[in-house]
Amino acid sequence: MVYSPIDNTIASAMAVASETFNNSKVPFYVSADSMVKDGGLATYGIDYTVLGKETAKMVAQALGGADVSTMAVVKMSDMNIYVNTKTADAIGVQIPQDILDKATVLE
Question: Does residue 16 surpass a pLDDT of 90?
Answer without folding.
Answer: yes
